[in-house]
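Quick check before the chapter quiz. The format below is the same one you will see on the exam, so make sure you can read both the input and the output lines.
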Amino acid sequence: MNLSVLDISIIIGYIVLTIVIGYLLSAKASKNLSNYFLGGNKIPWYMLGVSNASGMFDITGTMWTVTILFVYGLKSVWIPWLWPVWNQIFLMMFLAIWLRRSNVMTGAEWLKTRFGDDKGSQLSHLIVVLFAIVSVIGFITYGFVGVGKFAQTFFPWNLQTYVMGITISSENMYAIIIMGLTTLYVIKGGMYSVVFTEVLQFVIMTIACIMVGVIAISLVSPEQISAAIPEGWKDIFFGWNLDLNWDHLIPAVNNKIETDGYSLFSVLMMMMIFKGMLVSIAGPVPSYDMQRILSTETPKDAAKMSGIVSLVLFVPRYLMITGLAVLALVYLAPEFNKMGDNIDFEMVLPYALNNFIPVGAKGLLLAGLVAAFMSTFAANVNAGPAYIVNDIYKKFINPNASQKKYIRMSYLASFAVVAVGIFFGFFAESIDTVMKWLVGALFGGYTASNLLKWIWWRFNGYGYFTGMLAGLLASLIAPLAFPEVSPIYAFPFIFLFAFAASVIGSLVTKPEPDEVLIKFYDSVRPWGFWKPVYLKLKEQKPEAKPNKDFWRDMMNCTIGTGWQMMLVLIPIYLVIGEFMSLTWVILLFVASSVVLYFTWYKKLKDYPEDYKCEVKKEEEIKETELV
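Here is the expected output.
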């Protein structure tokens, strides 16, 4: 592909601009660890929300989503529930508030508020740090595979090279260069750099998405789409089986459906809902999403930040995804048929962009997609080293070092995490393979311990450690021992294994001290099986009230999941020209927004009323003592 001088200039100009921003913000970021990893808790919640949305707008995930929309049609909107995509709704409704009430820097440090500082707590601390590093490396690997495929298709230069007798493909060289440039500004500028560049990146990506949507609507008619798709492609609902037959259009697509293992769609949906509920209540994995929550100024801001993510992300993203998918369906089917069974479906996005985007617009769009990758990658690079420096180096190796020393160690840790992620990227088979391992096996190992930490008072640090260790080992071993079993279907077994280890580990050891449990319950106030702790808190503070919001939270999560789905369907129906369905979806979105305004937004609280009174008393006592 030959890029024009204008296209190349736009791409290079964008990359230079992001690096310059990173360096300009470096002085502010390097004051201390809180500034470096959390922006000093002074970055506005809406900017953190846009930044978080930008980090989720990753190029690898976009390539995968274009592919599944191409293959599965509107039924593909359910497949991201594998993640599950609606974990943002659970964060929005209650979990972000619970997390932010801790006032800590990382997910590992948060465990101290739940388990205290005994040996069990230290073990739980170490295992979550290990998990955080493994998951961040996994996401870097995932990004490495996607950005290499993307760049190889668009950029005209052959960069294949040889290092010590080893051949490094052009695809991998592009990935290394783009990752290297991104690492420069992230390492130098920390959270300030990540957030401010991601807001810029989101603006560029939104312009690019609208551009693709407009081009697709102008080039493709609803009649052309109908002629290029099998029966049932436009149906969002499904029966026991998927019932999509591509034989008379692109026969190789049927092989893709069989390989993915999505033919029994109802079974897949039951698995996704089962997994999604558990994973969502467990909370975010210790990566960039959690860092954004901990970076907000107040607990209410954390909830609003999680809410704005869905609001700003899905409409522009699915404008691009749908536009590229329909362009590929209508115009590229003959090319795919020539490939026979050797279609690389992850190349649907690059093929569509390569053939339909004009000069100038192509440069802006490529800058937007590079921005999408850089956002996700930057967010992970900022999150991983926080655990290495704050939770290993500072806690166990050098607790009295200067802030400059910690910042330098953060630079080193960032380089190390990126290098290991790139190393594993060389061995990853495909985007789909890495994604399924992340959301199936790895999340299966994480879920049990992190679900129990919220809802069961008797769960302790030893139980957390044994459950996480069992889950982490199972998630790493299962794909090797049973390669024919999809990680998605392995999830229940990994979860049950980790759950049993969590419960046994807790019951054979002592419960956490009363003072630790009471302090945690008093400030966080989760719902669940906390009655013994609540009764002890009430002895000290008669005005204390238990959290009775479980059913309201679950109702809001159900409505919120539908609200989020409307944001996905609005751009899809717009681009494919289904205007009656579009009208109904907009009406449902407006109605659910009004309901959530009263049942969620108006009910937001930073802390329980009785807790705030206690904090105010303590502050008044401190002021009196100072006087």
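If your answer matched, good. The chain is about 75% helix and 0% strand.
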